[in-house]
Amino acid sequence: WLYLGFDVPSSFLQEAFGICSLDGVLPENLRLDPQRSALTARLYALANQIRTVKGSHPWMPLKIACPNTKEEFKVISLLVEDPLAGQPSYVDHLCGLHKRIQHKLDSY
Q1: I need a surface site. Which of 28, 39, 42, 52 has the fewest CB within 10 A?
Q2: Of residues 9, 25, 11, the one with CA closest to residue 64
């Protein structure tokens, strides 16, 4: 997925897709053409690199999501918190903190 939010600079939209804003644009009408510019070539290469790394999965097309579209809700539903370097997720951290507080209160 490539998520284009409200704060995407118009210069990026112009260079990547030939549009000035996302107003009234349907994501299914946006195509990332690697021949358009150096930026789109780099984005396309990045997408292909991710496909290569995730080679055990079937080839996935690059889908584009814009604000206030059904695609945006699909992207949001796919977001997960990925713990880094063995650190607990934020929710797990809060649960552990709560457990320590409860234990401390129970010991009084």
Answers
A1: 52
A2: 25
For residue 17, give both structure tokens. Answer: 């897709």
Per-residue pLDDT reduced to its tens digit, 73-96: 888 888 776 666 777 778 888 999
Distances (CA, A) of 101 to 62, 81, 96, 106: 46, 24, 9, 9
Tell me the pTM.
0.65
Is there a contact between 47 and 1 (Cβ–Cβ < 8 Å)? no
* Per-residue exposure over 49-60, b if at least 16 CB sit within 10 Å of its own CB, e if not: eeeeeeeeeeee
